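Q: Here's a chain of 217 amino acids. Please give me its 3D structure as tokens.
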Amino acid sequence: MAVTIRNLTAADIAAASDLQRRVYKAIPAFSQEQFESLLGHFPEGQFVAEADGKLVGIAISLVVLWDDYSLHHTWAEVTNHGHFDTHDMGGRTLYGAEVCVDPDCRGQGVGHALYEARRQLCRTMNLKRIIAGGRLPGYHEHAAHMSPEEYAKRVIWGDIYDPVLRFQLDEGFDYCGILHGYLPTDPEAIGNAALIVWLNRDYDPSRPTQLPPKDSP
């Protein structure tokens, strides 16, 4: 399957919201206003994946001052409850606020292409890293007899398979700990998330952060 990555536009909002509803049954999809806020604050950081003319994935991100959040934050805090006005070009961290892929297209490179688009954006903008709170969709099956910390460790060791954390580790992200209460509306993860980071090896602290050229994806 040939996948094309480009920036989200206003014309994509309905399809993107519909995709979220199909992927996450219990987690509310972004509203029209939320997508418009993302496009108003940081259009360069919003990606869609297309295949055969159909939107099959989205990746949402913003630039943040990481020291304002650090090891103990929630999705609501880092996005200001989905208003996304926490985007700050004075920051050096690209924060991944959302990724979802059409269930019918998983395992066909869509997620990898979206993650690569984020990595390229991080390099182009001379940002230091990408940080995100990754869902743990398999945790609810083990929550009765282990903590989310133990669950994540067992995923890393290969004893348990979690499709999201395993994918993120394979994409070169490092696991940094558990964010408790990160997304209370996520029943599969019991509200927890894995704090993950990818470091930009090309980061140059002597250079400023810069937006990508207008013709970039």
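Q: Can you summarize the key feature?
A: The longest strand covers residues 54-64.
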